[in-house]
Amino acid sequence: MEDIILNAQSLKSVIHCGAGAFATYATKLGGKLFIITDSNVYALYKGLIEKTFGNAPTFVLPAGEKSKSRNSLFKIFDKMIDCGVTRSSTVVALGGGVVGDIAGLAASMYMRGIKVVQIPTTLLAQVDSSVGGKTAIDYKGVKNVLGAFYQPSEVIVDPLFLSTLPARELRCGLGEIIKYSAIDCGIYGTLSQNSDKLFDLKFLENVTADCIRHKAKVVTEDERDTTGARKTLNLGHTTGHAFELYYKRKSHGEFVLIGTYYELYIAEKKGICESCYADSLRALITKVIKNIPAYADAEKAALMAKFDKKNDEQSIVSMIVPKSVGESYELKLPIAEYAKLIGECAEKIRGEKC
Ligand SMILES: NC(=O)c1ccc[n+]([C@@H]2O[C@H](COP(=O)([O-])OP(=O)(O)OC[C@H]3O[C@@H](n4cnc5c(N)ncnc54)[C@H](O)[C@@H]3O)[C@@H](O)[C@H]2O)c1
Ligand SMILES: [Zn+2]
To answer: What domains appear along the chain, each with residue ranges and CATH number?
Structure first.
């Protein structure tokens, strides 16, 4: 087990990481607790939740992205008020990124902010969303448009929860892990040398700590995403989010993989990324998603990137693309040119499949 410290300006966050972290630290959470989880996690871990948190009130969200909504948020507030949650209470977010994002936002707003502890149960939430204090709900079809920066006081990352995770959810977590490999040379080395172990839980446990260390360093430097350091964590996300908004059928982590694949084409075409390095990243991506979709209307879907929060104006799309090992680059393109290149990439994938 290892404690990783995220020294954000707003709050020092301690991330307890490794096997046994839940048994050691969840039982030590003091004061009045309010648990937020989702229906799948509750069904699998009801016994453990009751054993660990006694009769603490528990709010169970329906599983899935649809729960990151205004309705769910206000249902959480209703229950918090009904259960007498006070300023000294602690919200415990036990679940994937959906639970973590909405529970973090609820904690940030309730009585102008009460303590939140994140206990991520998906690989994606363990390597990424539970760390760094970004909280949000989706609104009017725009992802994460209402939210707050709100650091958890503690994050408890225990691989115990990964044993029940469906393969598809492992793939989603690997989406963010491969993103880290494109911005961190250590993680790139580990993944390239062990690409046959990507679905091995023991291997993932070590990589998880590497990803958290990377994120903790970046967020310590740039908590509120203003100096540019934190932007690098959005590699692959411009196209990932655009496709996520347009196609909907896949999950965030899968779209990050697909988005990175498409953006690699642009990075190569624009002379930013060398072909052999781009090939090695593509090889990692296709170990996780064998068939990258060659969307027929990719060019149209790419236009959704105008909503990306990184853009200063809707006509110029900003994206973080791989440059060389451990180095990324912020590329800004007029939206029409960007969408055209995305369409070209789809065409190329279609050609390769024939
Ligand atoms: N705040 C951030 O910095 C940040 C970063 C990345 C992603 N996100 C957000 O995270 C969300 C995606 O997170 P996610 O991929 O964890 O999705 P999720 O929370 O929907 O979880 C995925 C599925 O796994 C199930 N599940 C959770 N834990 C389980 C377990 N231990 N065993 C079996 N099933 C389990 C869930 O019920 C759900 O069906 C998106 O909304 C995305 O926007 C936020
Ligand atoms: Zn992401």
So the answer is: 2-163 (3.40.50.1970), 168-353 (1.20.1090.10)
